[in-house]
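Collaboration report, partner site 2.

Our partner group contributed sequences for two proteins of shared interest, and the home lab folded both. The records are reproduced in the order in which they were received, starting with the first partner submission.
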Amino acid sequence: MYKTAMLALIAASFATAAVAQKGGKTQPGGTTNPEVGFVRILSNGSRELRVSAEDGTGASVLHSAGRAQMFVSMGPRPQHQIAFSEGGKVRLLTYEVTSTSLKTTNIQTLVDMNTSGSQSFDFSPTGAHVAWINPRDYTIYLYNVASNQTSPLLTTQNRTGDATFTKDGESLMFLEEVSESDYVLKSVPITGGSPVELGYRGNIMQVEAGRTDDRLVLVYYDHTMEMVPAGGGTRVRLPNGYAPSLRCDDRVVIFQRAYNGGVSLHKYDLQTGLTSTFSNKDLYWPDYYPDC
């Protein structure tokens, strides 16, 4: 998913680095079976990467940073890895499960784009790859977790927006600009090849892939969200928001809203149509683990 609240693309040079960071904070009493990750804004403006139960309880702090923007993309549970951005860096965090909580053991910087702007990146639901977009030349890169290698996947003709993996991790969907605030959704296999259009176009700024089938959640510039069923069909209007993430069973979507300069987290039950509040302040960019 697109790791920013707005479609502000970064303009920076591509670089690859491998920086290990040992240790990491642990929140006493945190859950040992987390379901979501998110970012907390502290009173001084700094950020914390946290994981917790689905209702926000039992949170463990896995990384603390300064005021740089931070966004999160969760890998599969058994892998104990999370992709996140911190300022201009896309990073891969590895943690271990202790008897009472979680503890960070390593943080590797996959790319430093030398910017304070936002990034578009995503962690494959299989845990095999991390993808990100270099906005300077509209190139999409793939990092192979097993081989620790980065390679270009595709360079587009026009500005590239949000990128997200399909549920099987075999293809990457991305938004390519046609004109200002007008994007077309395309897909390309992770093995390379020519991208194909998926039949969705408009002022779309984010896309989220379903976990169990080919449904999509589309987010527009005005923060309208809608669910597109597998194979097309009638679109279902969701509550307004952005940064959506579908639970592993596709029954619940967690998302954020902006209000009066602040942020809040909410969950929407797709079966009951009920919205509940995860947090009404200081938390943003939620992401479910891709697997149950």
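Second partner submission, folded after the first:
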Amino acid sequence: MHDPHFPEEPAWRETLKRISTIRELDDYSTANVDFIAECLESLDDRVRGGAALAAEGCLFERYILDSILQIAEYDVSDAVRKAAIQSLEAAVDEGVNQGFENEEDFDTELRDMEEWDDFQMESLQEDYRRVKNLLLGILQNEDEILEIKEVTLKALSGLGFKSYVRDWIEDFFLSDKKSSRLTAVLSMGKYPGNWEKQLCETISPETEKSLLMEAISASFLSESQLIAERVEQVLQRSGEDADLISYALYTLANINRTENLAEILQKFSTHPNERVSGAAKAAIELYTKKSFNDYLEDELGMEDI
């Protein structure tokens, strides 16, 4: 029985709790997908926005993508549109992974993936094209607001090997608006090898902290000695800033081109700040795995495990 001294939670809050649980557990059962589809039609912006974010995990389910594309283009709430566009990044990444940007790769994938029939693959490719065309249209729309364009560029970052996407990233990087520069640096993260100069320029102790942290994070997949040196310089001058130290340690471990890296990580693993010591221990684990995999590949000619 309901206690009258404690008012019932609003329906929208209960709905968002269920949506959040679906995302956290990655539980996209038929019932949950149907629930998300229903929530995408809600008149409550909060419910629509939450469902749009959760839809990332089931974009290619029946009806979901149609609703997300509609919301991304036409929703009355900019916040809800941003949530939908953010989810569409997963569709772009999936399309790139399937080789849809290269017809020869697409044919190879089709032959190798026997569990997919022709209709399924062609349908997925068509869905990818719909997503890509919508996102590019938003970027090219001169009347579109900057916030929407920023989240759209990030959603297209999986196409960062394409010159037209690189041009957009470059334009945003050169902007005098902090939010646009942050978006550009974040978008560099999937192909940091294309942005060594810009990332090195940004990874400096003099750079504003949020932009600096984004640049360090975007360098995670880099293999650049120069970028590693810049990150190490930031580490040496970071003082007791746990955020910067943690980001720098983990990125250095993955780049794995720093002299005495093992000693550096070991030193920070005993740091009195638990966040720093925890980051150092995670970085040590990553460094150890990468070093072993590099040995297998470089010395024994084996693929990593």
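Feedback sent to the partner group on the second submission included the following. Residues 274-300 form the longest helix (27 residues). Residues 1-8, 103-117 have pLDDT under 50 and may be disordered.
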